[in-house]
Write a structure and sequence with these properties.
The complex is a heterodimer of chains A (about 250) and B (about 160).
Chain A: H1 11-36, H2 44-56, H3 59-86, H4 91-115, H5 121-145, H6 155-168, H7 172-175, H8 178-208, H9 212-252
Chain B: H1 2-27, H2 31-34, E1 37-48, H3 59-66, E2 76-79, E3 84-89, E4 92-102, E5 107-112, E6 115-124, E7 128-135, E8 141-149, H4 152-158
Antiparallel strand pairs in B: 1-2, 1-8, 2-3, 3-4, 4-5, 5-6, 6-7, 7-8
């Protein structure tokens, strides 16, 4: 999921990464809407609200919404900055660092919310900003390493693509195109996971409140842990093969 | 060398933007501050009426809609800085609740014990406060509540 970059990625890699990150994004977005009455995994609506607040002359609210959009932008910037600067040194580390940062942000929101949140407007504004940053980081990571084929929080674009694909599949030549079938599978996985994450979060929020964010951290931690395990496993396999090859050379001599 | 100057440029731009943002933010007043004070209900009407021609609400309709709401019968609302709100009807039957703003300050939450209600804070300035809320009690629609700030001098005289 995280070790491969751009053209080296398989459809399975994109489905796994897209599915798990979209699930976590759905959880974050629904929880934030329930608690803070603000979306945190997408900014399309925030642009419209920004324009509305400016038109009404509500400068404070306009600034807050601008700040939220900036946080999402900065999350994407940060994520891609880490990837393009450190990818050649250690791909796994470069790709997992943004996810670690995302976990830290969501863990902070969950902990603060559970133990200290007094429901003031300032707290809400800051926590929504932090969550938008975290979602920007995640979206930037998935889009960057998958060569823009996976965007886990951008459901407007995703729905557009599904609509286009659905119409293309009315013709046989497109239905039999393996690339389009693969794309369809990735898109449907992301959409289903996002929705499932949202429903799951909506249900468990009623029972555990802000601790939902710990569950999100767990899902993201699963991606990092799974990749680490695969990395170690691949290394062991390679080492064994190498030893076997050397033994064969020695015995033949 | 060129790469470093680019990165420095980015850092300086981001810091300048954050500084400007903080300066502008500190110079504007929040809805949290503006809402503090006493407000009188002056208008109850459908913003989005279930039937096109009927926008005004009668007193009976108002009572039916608010029957199960915490704002039932309240005519004056006093928002206190400590997060309390006093709902009054003709100076009697005071109801003490808690208020908080959510979202970007566009959602007003009123709560008492475990019950809470949310209203859309559509507009607020020094003189006027407008709240919206959805109702589907009689028919689906959006109700608009308009308040006027009670003049401080008049309020002191009344007390």
């Amino acid at each position: 999921m995280l070790r491969k970059y751009n053209k080296y990625r398989t459809v399975k890699d994109n489905i796994q990464l897209g599915g798990l990150t979209a699930f976590s994004a759905g959880m974050v977005n629904v929880t934030s809407v329930i608690i803070f009455f603000a979306f945190t995994s997408n900014v399309t609506g925030h642009y419209a609200i920004l324009a509305e607040e400016i038109a009404k002359g509500n400068w404070h609210e306009a600034l807050i919404v601008f700040g939220w959009i900036f946080m999402f932008f900065f999350g994407n910037f940060f994520s891609n900055f880490i990837i393009i600067n450190f990818d050649r040194k250690n791909t796994y580390l470069a790709h997992s660092t943004p996810l670690v940062v995302e976990i830290l942000c969501l863990f902070a929101v969950g902990t603060y919310g559970h133990f200290y949140y007094a429901e003031t407007l300032k707290e809400t504004e800051i926590m929504v900003g932090l969550m938008l940053f975290a979602m920007g980081v995640q979206n930037g990571l998935t889009a960057s390493i998958s060569n823009f084929s996976v965007k886990t929080t951008h459901l407007t674009g995703l729905t557009t693509d599904i609509g286009l694909l659905a119409s293309m599949f009315t013709q046989k030549r497109f239905r039999e195109n393996k690339d389009l079938i693969a794309k369809k599978n990735v898109l449907l996985t992301v959409a289903t996971s996002y929705l499932s994450g949202g429903i799951f979060a909506g249900v468990i929020y009623l029972k555990i409140g802000f601790l939902v964010f710990y569950m999100v951290c767990l899902v993201i931690g699963l991606i990092i842990g799974y990749e680490y395990y695969k990395l170690k496993f691949t290394k062991i396999i390679r080492r064994k093969r190498e030893v076997k090859r050397l033994k064969a050379i020695v015995s033949s001599e | 060398m060129k790469k470093h100057s680019y990165i420095t440029g980015y850092i300086v731009s981001f810091l300048a933007l954050i500084l400007l943002f903080c300066l502008l933010l500190s110079s504007t007043s929040t809805r949290n501050d503006i809402i503090i004070g006493e407000w009188r209900e002056v208008e109850w009407k459908y913003e989005k009426a279930p039937q096109r021609e009927k926008k005004d609400l009668t007193k009976d309709e108002k009572n039916a809609i608010t029957k199960n709401l915490v704002i039932h019968k309240a005519e004056e609302w006093q928002f206190l800085p400590n997060g309390d709100v006093i709902l009054r009807m003709n100076g009697k039957d005071d109801k003490l609740m808690e208020w908080t703003l959510k979202g970007r300050g566009n959602i007003l939450k009123l709560s008492q014990n475990d019950n809470s209600e949310h209203y859309n804070l559509y507009k607020i300035n020094d003189d006027e406060l407008v709240l919206y809320f959805h109702t589907d009690l009689q028919a689906k629609g959006i109700v608009k509540l308009k308040f006027q700030r009670i003049d401080k001098g008049q309020y002191a005289k009344k007390i």
